[in-house]
Amino acid sequence: MPSRDTERIAVVGGGPGGLYAAALLKRLRPGREITVWERNAPEDTFGFGVVLSDETLGGIEHADPVVYAALSDAFVRWDTIDVVHRGTTQTSGGHGFAALERRTLLRILHERCASLGVRLRFRTEAPPTAELAACHDLVVAADGVHSATREAHARHFRPTVTHHRNRYIWLAADFAFDSFRFEIAETRHGVMQLHAYPFARPSPGDPGASTVIVEMRDEVWRAAGLDTCGTAESAERCAEVFAKALGGRPLRSNKSSWLTFATVTNQRWSHGRTVLLGDAAHTAHFSIGSGTKLAVEDALALAACLEEQPGLSAALAAYEAERRPVVLSTQRAAAASLRWFEELPQYAHQPPRRFAFNLLTRSRRVTHDNLRLRDPGFTAAVEEEFGCPPGTPPMFTPLRLRGLELRNRIVVSPMDMYSADADGVPGDFHLVHLGARALGGAGLVMTEMVCVSPEGRITLGCTGLWTDEQADAWTKITRFVHDTAPGAAIGVQLGHSGRKGSTRRMWEGIDEPLEDGNWPVVAASPLPYAHGVSQVPQALDRGGMDAVRDRFTEAARRAARCGFDLLELHCAHGYLLSGFLSPLTNRRTDAYGGSVENRLRFPLEVFDAVRAAWPRERPMTVRISATDWSHGGTSDEDALAVARAFAAHGADAIDVSTGQVVPEERPEYGRSYQTPYADRIRNVLGVPVIAVGAISSWDDVNSLLLAGRADLCALARPHLHDPHWTLHAAAAQCYTGPGAPWPLPYRAGSRPPPTGRTDAPKPRLTLD
Q1: In the β-sheet with 33-37, what is the strand arrangement from edge to edge?
Q2: 39-77, pLDDT tens digit by residue?
Q3: Which among 26, 98, 449, 729 has the fewest CB atoms less than 10 Å away?
Q4: Which residue ranges are recorded for the region named Disordered (predicted)?
């Protein structure tokens, strides 16, 4: 039964979230005594327009038809997005937006609260939360991003507030744009961007109104002198920059100032009788229009949980359990969008359609498949510009690297199997494992890290290429792939374990030393991988480096004779060459340590030797860790320097991974979480890249390729789940072309087998 211990409720903050929570809670139980404290006047507000989604409106309609009807009458609706860049406008339709003036939204909520009997105390600072909690059954803290409630009880809520690098200002134009408009201005000071959307519809004698947000990097803001401008002058300067978009009309402010966005998170959303709601609990970047939406949805969930749960404690726990996953998902999308706009200058070179597609898919909530449904004409034009043959999804568009043409853009990522015999010889397991994935349609199948010497192994189950017996076994595998899966390519990844070697197999104790029989390990510096667990490696001297380099060269020659189509040099994940690259693992004081140029010296020596031994017509790639996910590790600039150097020495693509360099890493896991690092290298340096890291759907692959964030996509776990992942992706997209041919013996399985009927006769009559 519903909670009955929330009869007196205090709401701190009279924004949309707080007001709507008050209205809902009062409507559900008219006997409640509810007071809203708002320090500003009723007519005061910041910003201009508010965007709400159809999903949010559906919840409002169900919970309070009166508020829904008033909002519907006030909404401006549109479904197109215009992206203006370098004098061209790309228009994409089918998006569906609804916006209204923030003042109108607040007026509707004020009137609804007043009609229900909620006490609204304007121009009044709320008493301290502890004081309110002493005389109220529930305190709803909806006091915004700078929440005094949150800060007063920080040790309970445990907030984190992260400020970001871009500056932005909220302004308005006194006319209605006819779409959501993004415009890029490349000024002499740097790139500036405009986000604009209508919030008041035109009427006779009234041109309507639009929200206009101008955003740029902090260094651009300072170079343009905007850091010394007042509000009025800032509005004038912004209107000058975007004069064409505005038709020469001015911009106006409303208590506007230049801000940096703050992402707010809290480890807990409630403390005793106090609960956080809206921006006090969480924020999401304005570029996905989610702040008011999240606050209103919080109010809906809080009201529902208070009705459904038997007590306040259970209700607040249920509220947080329901809302936290939704908020985290939104914050991940918002973070991706925020980063995209922070890194916008790196995309300025892109052709207009690709740039527009990139912008539209920046948060990953809009994808290639989704956009194809919304606006098939626009998406088809982007595909044509990309080079997709007619009827061919982007992932099945071929790619040439030197003399190798890959039939599609899917790579089976290198995955250590730890299943070789004690002499490092691959066996039937490897034949079946790699052969199955080649038959499964991938354009390129990569081996696990193949070790160049016995002492360069991670475990006793790792494969190698230091003997002819090993080479013979690999030849059997490459021959099977070429003969049985025509068109599939197979690549070898060569590496040396460095300080991470001489350990047990993953399922026996990852990174733990052998119980006995450990061999000595080497590294750039004498630093163990896990202090107190791993053995201390010997720092390589010049003779040791020469010996390692020669081992790589010998393995490369064997790999060429085995018939591998591509060779990848493993310089990631904390193994030997990666250990030279990271400042966390390279503490040398000679010519091979210190600056990134020095740290690159030995990996480049190995690369040059391998490239000279590897057939000229066959491509060679390098896998790097573009961040160590640890303070003081590889920086963005370091990653660019490393990629630039390998490309200058002849690498045909950079395989951009991250982490696994130090055990104390803190990765930011999530969907496609490593792709921004590949994206940056590709678009800053113009170097082909392989993107990796939690890419799981064919829709994500198509989106990344079309947006110009990657040239190839490497997938690991999806290929463990389904060796025929690529063929099934083709079937799901109704594609039957040369990019994904079904092996003749499997062709009968190219359609899903029939299943039993799951539909049932519909009732003929509906009775009350």
Answers
A1: 119-121, 33-37, 8-12, 138-141, 274-276, 270-271
A2: 998 877 766 888 877 777 777 888 888 988 998 888 888
A3: 98
A4: 745-768
φ/ψ region of 435 (left if φ > 0, alpha if ψ in -120 to 50, else beta) reads alpha
Do 671 and 365 touch, CB atoms closer than 8 A? no
Position 340, amino acid: W
Neighbouring-strand partners of residue 333: none
* CB neighbour burial string for 170-191, b if at least 16 within 10 angstroms, e if fewer: bbbbebbbebbbbbbbeeebbb
Does residue 575 carry a catalytic annotation?
A: yes
> Pseudo-torsion of CA 633, 635, 640, 643, nearest 10°?
10
Mapped onto helix, strand or coil, the DSSP state of residue 160 is strand
Q: In this model, does residue 4 exceed pLDDT 60? A: no
Contacts of residue 348, defined as CB under 8 A and 6 or more positions apart, other chains included, come to 85, 184, 186, 191, 355
* 61 against 296, higher pLDDT: 296
Is residue 710 within 8 A of residue 690, CB to CB? The reply is yes
Instruction: Provide the mean pLDDT of the chain.
Output: 93
Between CA 616 and CA 624, with CA 622 as vertex, the angle to 5 degrees is 170
Strands 190-200 and 180-187: antiparallel
Residue 767 has pLDDT above 60, yes or no: no
Assign residue 241 a region (left: φ > 0; alpha: ψ between -120 and 50; beta: otherwise): alpha
Share of the chain above pLDDT 70, in %: 97
Q: What is the pLDDT of residues 560-597, one digit of tens each?
A: 999 999 999 999 999 999 999 999 999 999 999 999 99
Q: How far apart are CA 531 and CA 524, in angstroms?
A: 16
Residues 169, 173, 179, 181: what is their CA dihedral angle, to the nearest 10 degrees?
Answer: -40
Helix (H, G, I), strand (E, B) or coil at 586: coil
Backbone angles phi, psi at 447, to 5 degrees: -70, 170
* C-alpha distances in Å from residue 26, one per residue of 8, 82, 125, 305: 10, 42, 22, 14
* pLDDT score at 78: 87
Q: What is the pLDDT of residue 511?
A: 87
Burial of 491 (0-12, 13-18, 19+ CB in 10 A): buried
Among residues 418, 575, 592, 735, the one annotated as catalytic is: 575
Q: Which residues make beta-bridge pairs with 705?
A: none
Q: What is the pLDDT of residues 130-152, one digit of tens each?
A: 999 999 999 999 999 999 999 99
For residues 752-756, give the mean pLDDT: 71
Residue 91's nearest CA partner among 383, 371, 385, 347 is: 371
Strands annotated E in 60-189: 76-78, 81-85, 88-92, 97-101, 119-121, 138-141, 159-173, 180-187
pLDDT at 2 over 50: no
Cβ partners under 8 Å of residue 283, min gap 6: 145, 261, 262, 263, 264, 291, 331
CB 133 within 8 A of CB 270: no
